[in-house]
Amino acid sequence: MSELLKSVEKLPLEPTLPKLSLNNFRGGNQLPIWDIPEVEFRLGKKYPLLPMVLKNWELNDPNDLVLRLGTRQISMNRLRFMCYSKLAMRSVKGGQRELVLPEDRVPEEGLVRTCHWMIQPVAKLERGSIMEVLATALYLEVDSLIKQVWFSLNLVDEFSEDQAFAVSYESLRLCHLLPITGLDISMLHRIQRFFLTLVASVEFLELPFEHIHYLISSENVAVNSEKEMFYAAVRWLMHDWEARAEYAIALMQVVHLMLLPFEYIMQLQTGGAEGPVEYIIQLQDFPDLMYKALSARLTMFADDGSKERLCEIFKIELPVLRPFISDNLCSYHRANPDDPVKDFSYDDFLDYLRVIQENGIYSWKALSVQHGSSSFKMV
Fold first, then answer.
1. pLDDT in tens, 331-358
2. Cross-referenced SMART domains, in alphabetical order (predicted)?
3. Is CATH 1.10.3720.10 the classification given to domain 60-190?
4. Distance (Å, rounded) from C-alpha 121 to C-alpha 61?
5. Angle 53-58-63 (CA atoms, 0-180°, nearest 5)?
6. Long-range pairs of 146-154 with CB within 8 A, sequence gap ≥ 24
7. What share of the chain is helix, strand, coil (3-state, %, to 5)?
8. pTM, whole model, 2 decimals?
């Protein structure tokens, strides 16, 4: 032991070191400096988040949510569905993998097309199912899809004439699914040249009174003469006279009776009428309508300079002349709006509707709207 101690005493003393903590080591809190361009850290600008998420969905899109509508099942990506649907965001909780939808609120075709739209949101909507898609989007609260549907419906060139009626008809059929009032009526305003083709269809006969009243009172629908409007109202009434007789006077009030041919007005006033029109002239209030129409007619065509004064005294309002069309396939159509109205019967009118049916539902596209003089003529 003594020998060992002697050797230790001979060792040189250790140099004295400063007592520093690891936290105080020079450079201990600094990261190495790499030569990396600053732009590489700005991922938010160079690589937007949404495209990256969509790309990830495209590559890895597990259908982990089942939508049940009656017996129909549709698989969707749960995250994607919740991103689009506010209803799903509230209803799908935790690890829920199934969402049951009510059959009385969601149309099946609308759900299928809505799910397809979610997968491909840039896909165009189809006209034939647009109202079912709207009903589904409203229930699921898919705001972006609702906005796209409304944007499409506001394109008058895309939804006019027959397309406008299709939307109106579907809105009426799906009225229990669409918490929107007035769309079925407002679309009827876009009907002009298509009107007589519509009158020739069974859909016209099935329309409710409110729609017929709007069409007959519309200043936008195009006809060859006011007598066609009169006969169009008669056609709808006669389809179910017992149930619709109560609406007859209301419809006659929106027909411009004073613009009917003068001889026909006299015929109706004296009780002479053809076939189904006879039922209408026998109504209690109809003679009063014809008396007012005849009085207004005689007043409006007075040529002694008293017309304006008489209109003011008797509160006579000039009816707006409807747009004019002429179809070469019709035997009684006049070629120009200023020509005298040709005499034709209700049977002649039905014969023309039959020609329309045989010629196809798109024959109205060959018709052009004309405008006559603003002055009324005794015809």
1. 999 999 989 888 999 999 999 999 999 9
2. BACK
3. no
4. 15
5. 100
6. 149/125, 152/125
7. 55, 5, 40
8. 0.79
